[in-house]
User: Fold Alpha/beta hydrolase from Mangrovihabitans endophyticus.
Amino acid sequence: MIAHDVTGHGPPVLLLHAAVADRRMWDPQVPALAAAGYRVVRCDLHGFGESPMPVGRDDDARDVADLMDFLGCERFALVGASGGGRVALDVAARWPGRVTALALLCTAVAGHKRSVTLREFGDREDALLDAGDLDAATDLNVATWLGPEAGPEARASLRIMQRHAFAVQTAGTPQTAGAAPAAPHGQTTANTAPDKPVSVPCLLVSGAHDVPDFRQIAARLADEMPGARHVELDWAGHLPSMERPDEITRMLIDFLRDPAAG
Assistant:
């Protein structure tokens, strides 16, 4: 079972972290969502936080579904950031009757063809990891994925989470030692989303200061998914829930109270 915690009572909401973080990225949102009347579940996907690298099967969406089964949550809302958004889309496609609403913040998506910008970032990161310079690779990620509104506390928090993830992923296990770390932008994983339409109320958030890929993904999904709407934040980078946590928390609560509102 992947590491997780549960706070509050009411309709369940599952928070899925970005692939440069772990479940601690949602620290600002958890108490507010619980106070608003939700049972807030957050987890560490394998290779992040307190969840080790996977042994055998590597299927984030199945891990999420199994966790919610364990917690007795038949139906639930999903909030996903970046690579966590890709996992959320996978869950919604494979178990459509279980997901009541989707809020996707700067989401990745399976099969996305990376832009030159994203490929160049990946090449720089790979070179640093190959050289064993996890600190420099961490600094690169913090500089790339947090927008101008992020303060020192958010940057310090992301640095801790990303550095820990690199340590977990590069150490691996006897079954996975030597495997490359998961791509921080959430594009390269063993999982691929099924080719099924996702039809559930969906809020897609993108940031004007983010790598263009994620704004393009949000716009495309808004066109393809019935019941989806796209909001671009002119102040945001890739991790708006860490950059202006109070604003994003209010947005999430408003959406969860009335997912169908335009």
